[in-house]
Write a structure and sequence with these properties.
single chain; mainly alpha; two-stranded antiparallel ribbon; 4 helices
Amino acid sequence: MESMPIDGKFTAEDVASLRGELASSGLDSWQAAELVSSFLAARGYGISSDGARSVITRIDATHCTLECMQQELETLALVM
C-alpha cells in the first residue's frame, strides 16, 4: 500500500528517495536541479528553472533535514 502525504504534496518516502539520489549521484547543481524538476513533473507539479536551482542551493548550503527538504519542495511546486 502506498503511503499518502499527511500534511503536504509529497510523501516522506518520496522525498527521502529523492534526497538519497541527490546525495549519491554526484550531479552538479544544474543536473541536480533537473532531477528535482523531473521528480516534481512525475507527480504532476512543475517548478521554474530558477526555483529548482535555488532549492538545490538551499538544500546543499544548509544540509537540509528531510522535513526541511519536503517543505522547500512543497513551497516551490507549481500545479500543472
